[in-house]
Amino acid sequence: MANYRDLLLEVENAVQYVSECYIKDDYDIGDRLLKSVMEGLIPYNEENVTIQSIFIQDDMAMKTLTRFQESVRSALIVEEAYHDEQQRMRFLHETLLPRKQKWKSVVEKYLYLMDN
């Protein structure tokens, strides 16, 4: 779980860099980085056996993960779904990052409970 939390932190840093790429009109670099990072998160979806073994009894946690994974899947098709910088920035900062933050909070709560 600690490694997974660290992965989520790395994702946040990468998404911030993607945002900077979009500001500089480096859409191609930003899109490729975003897709690459999001592909790394796909295996940690709601159907992952380890994820289920930890969170399956917590409906709210599973809903939070599902919403985050929906954003991850949207990021994989960023060029088709969001046609300009403004739409992409809105997606990053109003959808993807807030959902990632909520999910990371759930993960951190469970880490705390496991340690105590």
Q: Which helices and strands occur, and which strands form pairs?
A:
Layout: H1 2-23, H2 27-41, H3 49-55, H4 59-76, H5 78-81, H6 85-115
Helix pairs in contact: 1-2, 1-6, 2-4, 4-6
Helices and strands, in N-to-C order? HHHHHH
Tell me, what's the shape? elongated
β content, as a range?
under 5%
Helix-and-strand structural type? mainly alpha
Total E-strand runs: 0
Number of helices: 6
Instruction: Compute the CA-based radius of gyration.
Output: 15 Å
The largest sheet, given as strand count, sense and whether it forms a barrel, is: none
Detail the poorly predicted runs.
Answer: none
- The oligomeric status of these chains comes to single chain
Structurally, the number of domains stands at 1
The rounded distance between the terminal residues' Cα atoms is 14 Å
Task: Work out the helicity level.
Answer: over 70%
Mean pLDDT: 95
Summarize the structure.
With about 120 residues, this protein is mainly α. It contains six helices and no strands. The protein has one domain (about 1-115).
Describe what this molecule looks like in 3D:
- There is one protein chain.
- By secondary structure, the chain is mostly helical.
- The chain has one domain.
- The chain is 84% helix and 0% strand.
- It is built from 6 helices and no strands.
- Helix 2 runs antiparallel to helix 4.
- The protein is elongated.
- The two termini are 14 Å apart.
Keywords, separated by commas or semicolons:
116 residues; mainly alpha; 0% strand
